[in-house]
Design goal:
By secondary structure, the chain is of the alpha/beta class. About 35% of the residues lie in helices and about 25% in strands.
Length: about 240
């Protein structure tokens, strides 16, 4: 099966700081892939490159059979790439429903009653329907995380990128969020998830990619990757010789 997303030889530097070092990987349609790495490894920069908010210095990005390396972020969103942000970025002065409606109209290209019905359906799925008329700036952390997810889902993505969406949540909130993400994945949405809350990530993903200083250092089944001496040393700070 052709890859939904194909990242090939991606290179990006800011002066001497390398955030993508000839990074290559494929993601198949319907797959859930996790990305691990220490702070500053280049994980969010990788998402910025995939979504088009950051341009690569070299390499290519293919999505659903099309080369999108030079496509704008807006064009990629309309093609089916949507993301959440590590630090929630709601339109604080707008209601929760209006935030969802932005995704439905600007991302999914819907209008009128179709856009409204879709926005309401996504709010129900993410557990925010009861807060539809609340101002986004008044939400709790969990609700803001769910609103990030809502706006991305409202765009009807083929590929959903999640950036540290479980960070800062209580155990109960985290488990609730995991259940929601599992439900989204079960209906066929392809997911790439950056997360430091490892147990949350492992509850959903089928494959892990580990990066450090912008370079992919490991890729494979989650259990094998988590037991790797190199990953323990770089990501978990464990000396493999001890």
């Amino acid at each position: 099966m052709p890859a939904l997303l194909s990242v090939s030889g991606l290179q990006k530097s800011f002066g001497a700081v390398v955030v993508a070092d000839k990074t290559s990987f494929d993601v198949s349609s319907g797959e859930a892939v996790g990305i691990l790495g220490p702070n500053g490894a280049g994980k969010t920069s990788l998402f910025n490159l995939i979504t088009g908010s950051l341009r690569s210095d070299a390499g290519s990005i293919g999505f659903n059979g099309t080369d999108v390396t030079t496509s704008s972020a807006a064009a990629r969103c309309k093609m089916g790439i949507a993301r959440s942000f590590q630090i929630p970025q709601p339109f604080g002065g707008m209601t929760v429903f209006e935030n969802a409606l932005v995704g439905a109209t600007q991302g999914a290209g819907l209008s009128g009653r179709d856009a409204e019905d879709h926005a309401l359906g996504v709010l129900e799925e993410t557990g925010l329907l009861a807060r539809a008329n609340a101002r986004a700036g008044t939400l709790t952390l969990l609700e803001r995380k769910r609103l990030e997810l809502t706006r991305a889902l409202a765009a009807k993505p083929k590929l959903l990128l999640l950036d540290e969406i479980a960070g800062g949540l209580t155990e109960a909130e985290c488990h609730s969020l995991i259940d929601t993400i599992k439900s989204i994945h079960s209906r066929g949405t392809t997911i790439i998830w950056i997360e430091h809350v490892v147990h949350a990530l492992l509850a959903v993903v089928e494959r892990l990619i580990v990066i450090d200083f912008g370079k992919k250092i490991a890729e494979g089944e989650p259990k094998v990757i988590m037991e790797s001496a190199e990953v323990k040393e770089i990501y978990l700070g464990v000396d493999p010789d001890v």
